[in-house]
Specification:
Helices cover about 20% and strands about 30% of the residues. It has about 300 residues and is α/β, with parallel strands linked by helices. The strands form four sheets. Strands 1, 3, 5, 7, 8, 10, 11, 13, 16, 18, 19, 21 and 22 form a 13-stranded parallel beta sheet that branches. A nine-stranded mixed beta sheet has the order 2-4-6-9-12-17-20-23-24. It starts with a helix and ends in a 9-residue tail after the last helix.
């Protein structure tokens, strides 16, 4: 009871102080964790891994809370119950979600709940002595799942990997993987997911941030600035000529690659060039710690939202 009171009281503390308090209470809190003020987090067991974040105006009161690296619980969400919420790496609870943890809820890697989703692990109200059901079962969502706005997920639901759902639908039972779910039925996920060229992805990102970010690239389609005037240099290959010029001008260099090998990785690390491998979803050790706002703009505006695991 005393621990719960301290956790509730810390709701008014700044994030860094809340992290200190939670660690003193014996909870496992990783590095760069953010527990925003005006969020209430009360649990018997807490494990929040590196770079995870709990946004303001969030109510969490469960037996156990476990958040993987880079996972997020957005504002106006209510998560309560006598069981546990398990969130894998890069999973997200969207705005204004309602999660009933009467039984456990599992969110897999890169699982994102859209705004105003409702997850109920129990269905019981009318008296069981009159023959009405008392349904209490865990909810499990696999990896790479994206639920649309206003979804309702019922007790015992199991959603397999690689699923996208439309808005305002009810999900129950076993939902097969690799599909898009709508009121009209399911279609293969490949119908909405297309194979994209690396250069096309980065070109789209650069176009989004082009008005705010001066980019120079070995691809003329992406460059909107000269090497002299740019903020960041984008590479797709190990171009020694551009690298030498960029380093002499102390420019930020960002390499987008696929299937990076050990030799190339060592070269980039030694020259302090930040790299991101789209094929393996890995990045250089300091990729997320840019000294300028360059990476934040690319992430927030350009769609590169997956700050992934590192080798």
């Amino acid at each position: 009871m005393c621990k719960n009171f301290i956790m509730a009281l810390s709701s008014f503390f700044p994030s860094w102080l809340r992290v200190v308090v939670y660690r003193l209470l014996g909870f496992q809190i990783g590095k760069k964790v953010k527990i925003s003020p005006m969020s209430i987090v009360i649990a018997d067991e807490v494990a929040i891994n590196d770079y995870a974040e709990i946004k303001p105006l969030t109510l969490i009161h469960v037996r156990k809370l476990e958040m993987g690296r880079y996972s997020i619980i957005a504002s106006l969400s209510a998560i309560f119950g006598d069981a546990a919420l398990y969130m894998a790496e890069r999973s997200r609870v969207g705005h204004a979600n309602l999660l009933d943890c009467t039984d456990n809820i599992f969110l897999g890697e890169y699982c994102g709940l859209g705004p105003r989703n409702t997850l109920y692990t129990h269905a019981s109200w009318l008296p069981i002595t009159y023959g009405y059901p008392n349904n209490r079962k865990p909810i499990k969502l696999g990896k790479f799942i994206w639920t649309g706005i206003g979804n309702t997920i019922l007790p015992g639901t199991n959603i397999n990997d690689y699923v996208v759902t439309s808005a305002n639908i009810v999900l129950s039972g076993n939902v097969k993987g690799d599909c898009f779910v709508s009121p009209k039925g399911t279609i293969p996920i490949e119908k909405i997911r297309k194979q994209r060229d690396l250069k096309e992805i980065v070109e789209e990102m650069a176009a989004v941030v082009g008005e705010e970010l001066r980019v120079f690239s070995e691809s003329a389609d992406i460059s909107n600035s000269s090497l002299k005037d740019c903020e960041v240099v984008i590479l797709f290959t190990k171009n020694d000529s551009i690298i030498d010029k960029a380093e002499s001008r102390k420019k930020q260099i960002l390499a987008f690659v696929t299937n990076i090998d050990e030799k190339e990785m060592d070269y980039y690390n030694q020259t302090r060039i930040d790299w991101y491998d789209f094929s393996t979803l890995t990045m250089s050790s300091h990729f997320h710690q840019f000294k300028s706002v360059v990476m934040k703009k690319l992430v927030d505006l350009g769609g590169l939202r997956f700050l992934e695991r590192r080798p």
